[in-house]
């Protein structure tokens, strides 16, 4: 069969040959983790490992999509093929979703070198969808570099993106709080580059200064590891100020990952995180499929206060 | 016969030059509430923009909202653009201020149904649930 010249190429083969429709279809299968999607990944994965995967996270309406659109302009000038994975939240009530990031990136519709794909989070958590990184692998195999993962609008504590991206941009919006916000632990600590968007607003300079000062204190106290010095970049999509500085900072970080050896560690961490998510989901799936009655019986016992949830979980796991 | 074990993916777009997007937003919300994943691309969409979105997002259904009166020009151009990118397999539906007498010609173009002003949301949603195509490889 393999030598049959009339054999239709598989979706994965067509994807590797540059067929965009096949790529779009492969992404659907990977997103839904179908058997076909897994087989496609088997074929695609050896062709990956070349792309710079960039995460961008920050509050809703903070300017993530607008900023990504500005990046596309710069990267297209450099002749690079750009993929964007834009995650928006799913409804906890109906499972439906409104995916509206694409609306900020529409000027590239006639450009074959830009591919924007929206994903619903499907309640995965951390501002991501379960198979976001697997979708990025497909883009990587198809020759896209960089690949931008834009998270759901996030708050103070969503840090998962840092385990999925080589370079993480953390967006902060001026005028949303005083300097104490910059002192807090959480997502502020995961940014490889801190970005103050809407930089034309009057409070932007103060926020950028606060963020810089906090980093200086961390360095002085020895609580921040040396090596990569996290830049704070102020941008404005209205005036275009700061966009070049930001794309330069992203390129510098990639360079630093390569020269410092930190890049190899990050790739290992990304793959470990990806395997771990698959294991968790696989275990949960098996628990709910095979042990449904047992689980229901245990829930009954916890509801009647005869068992703690921790003991119930132990019992389920020991029976697997 | 393949079966869809995933949410319906739908594109909601407003082709052409009119700024009245309330209808499109209401429909996007109704489809979302029916459990669909709705890519909302908003105003001023050219046929080529709609085709690119349909291709990249791999949608099953495309909903077009139009109140400008230019439907007899835009719809054929959109259907052509979808064919060009190989996405004429998607179900296309339309809504807005479209005169009754144009509807037969619109359906002739390959558009599944036309929903005029006053149509109940549930009618549109049910139509999509009943008619969204399953894809050849949906079983995977």
Instruction: Summarize the amount of helix of chain B as a percent range.
Output: 25-40%
**Globular, elongated, flat, extended or rod-shaped: what is the shape of chain A?**
globular
Give the name of the CATH superfamily of the largest domain in chain A: P-loop containing nucleotide triphosphate hydrolases
- Major beta sheet, strand line-up of chain B: 2-1-3-4-5
The oligomeric status of these chains comes to: heterodimer
Number of domains of chain B: 1
**Helix proportion range of chain A:** 40-55%
In CATH, the homologous superfamily of chain B goes by the name Cobalamin-binding domain
Query: In what range is the share of β-strand residues of chain A?
Result: 5-15%
Specify the biggest β-sheet of chain B: 5 strands, parallel
CATH-assigned fold name of the largest domain in chain A: Rossmann fold
Walk me through the structure:
- The complex is a heterodimer of chains A (320) and B (140).
- Chain A has 320 residues and is α/β, with parallel strands linked by helices.
- Chain A folds into 2 domains: 11-261, 3-Layer(aba) Sandwich (Rossmann fold); 275-318, no CATH class.
- Chain A is built from 11 helices and 8 strands.
- In chain A, strands 4-2-5-1-6-7-8 form a 7-stranded parallel sheet, sandwiched between helices.
- The model of chain A has no long low-confidence stretch (mean pLDDT 90).
- In chain B, helix 2 (47-57) packs across helix 3.
- Chain B has a single domain (9-130), classed as Rossmann fold (3-Layer(aba) Sandwich), CATH 3.40.50.
- Chain B is globular.
- The N and C termini of chain B lie close together (12 Å).
- Chain B has 140 residues and is α/β, with parallel strands linked by helices.
- Chain B is built from 5 helices and 5 strands.
- Strand 3 of chain A pairs parallel with strand 2 (37-45) of chain B.
């Amino acid at each position: 069969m393999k030598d049959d010249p009339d054999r239709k190429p598989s979706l994965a083969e067509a994807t590797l040959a540059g067929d965009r429709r096949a790529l779009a279809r492969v992404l659907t299968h990977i997103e839904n983790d179908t058997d076909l999607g897994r087989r496609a990944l088997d074929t695609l994965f050896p062709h990956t490992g070349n792309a710079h995967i960039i995460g961008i996270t920050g509050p809703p309406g903070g300017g993530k999509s607008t900023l990504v659109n500005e990046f596309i302009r710069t990267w297209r000038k450099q002749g690079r093929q750009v993929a964007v994975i834009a995650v928006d939240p799913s409804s906890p009530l109906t499972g439906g979703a409104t995916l509206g990031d694409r609306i900020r990136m529409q000027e590239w519709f006639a450009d074959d070198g830009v591919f924007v794909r929206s994903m619903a989070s499907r309640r995965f958590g951390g501002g991501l969808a379960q198979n976001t990184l697997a979708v990025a692998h497909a883009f990587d195999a198809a020759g896209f570099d960089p690949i931008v993962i834009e998270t759901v609008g996030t708050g103070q504590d969503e840090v998962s993106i840092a385990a999925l991206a080589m370079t993480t941009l953390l967006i902060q919006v001026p005028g949303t709080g005083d300097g104490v916000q910059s002192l807090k632990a959480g997502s502020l600590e995961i940014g490889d580059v801190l970005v103050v968007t809407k930089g034309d607003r009057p409070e932007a300079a103060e926020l950028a200064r606060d963020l810089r000062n906090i980093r200086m204190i961390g360095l002085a106290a020895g609580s921040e590891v040396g090596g990569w010095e996290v830049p704070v970049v102020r941008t404005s999509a209205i005036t275009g100020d700061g966009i070049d500085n930001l794309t330069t900072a992203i390129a510098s970080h990639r360079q630093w990952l390569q020269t410092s050896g930190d890049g190899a560690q990050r790739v290992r961490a990304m793959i470990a995180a990806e395997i771990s998510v698959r294991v968790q989901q696989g275990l949960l799936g098996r628990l709910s499929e095979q042990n449904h009655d047992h689980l229901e019986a245990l829930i009954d016992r916890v509801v009647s206060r005869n068992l703690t949830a921790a003991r119930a979980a132990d019992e389920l796991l020991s029976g697997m | 016969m393949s079966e869809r074990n995933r949410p319906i993916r739908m594109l909601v777009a407003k082709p052409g030059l009119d700024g009245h997007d309330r209808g499109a937003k209401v429909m996007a919300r109704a489809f979302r509430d029916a459990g669909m994943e709705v890519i909302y691309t908003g105003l001023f969409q050219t046929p080529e923009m709609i085709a690119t979105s349909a291709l990249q997002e791999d949608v099953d259904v495309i909903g077009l909202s139009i109140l400008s009166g230019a439907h007899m020009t835009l719809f054929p151009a959109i259907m052509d653009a979808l064919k060009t990118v190989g996405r004429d397999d998607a179900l296309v539906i339309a809504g807005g201020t479209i005169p009754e007498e144009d509807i037969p010609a619109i359906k002739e173009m390959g558009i599944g149904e036309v929903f005029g002003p006053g149509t109940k949301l549930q009618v549109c949603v049910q139509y999509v649930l009943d008619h969204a195509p399953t894809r050849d490889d949906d079983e995977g």
